[in-house]
Amino acid sequence: MSEAIRIIKKYPNRRLYDTTTSIYITLADVKKLVLDNIEFKVEDAKTKDDLTRSILLQIILEEEGGDGVPMFSSDVLSKIIRFYGNAMQGMMGNYLEKNIQTFIEIQKKLQAQSSAMYGGTAGVPNADAWSEFLKMQGPAIQGLMGSYLEQSANAFLEMQQQMQKQSRNLFGNFPFPKQRRKSNARGAPPPRKSVSFPSAVPKHWLIPSVS
Question: What's the pTM value of the predicted model, to 2 decimals?
Fold first, then answer.
């Protein structure tokens, strides 16, 4: 039986209350839940609105402003912001999600190889062993990253094909007026008839002269 989702209530005073442990918690505690792969949901204590994304974004903001190396440069953040309100906004989110999932799978493979070589707890190598492994396995990591980039490119092509298919389905139902033009048996427009004039006026067209 799967474990129930942990409910965290947020009150107007910005305090977070963990209904499982019946205590107030901080963003650091919520971050630990994420690291421990514990599924949870943050909701407004009064309206029951889902605030999980808002809390996670606050954690990311704190991490980006911390002492470590930030994941997102100003240039990357600017580019992401430009996608909001764009027709590609939804597809961009899906594309990023697939790329992150692929990167996580590569990380798991590297950790499994490192644990087999240097040892670790529960399949996760310690910090020193992990650093040593990254130095020793440079070519292998480059190969995995090359595979990652290839999968990323395939994901983008798949996204592009889906967009083209959706465009065809959308615009194919519009009743565009069609211009009809008569054609001959071969399907080509009929040739224009040329008007020929006589080189000389017939005699019966002439008015007889009065003598």
Answer: 0.57
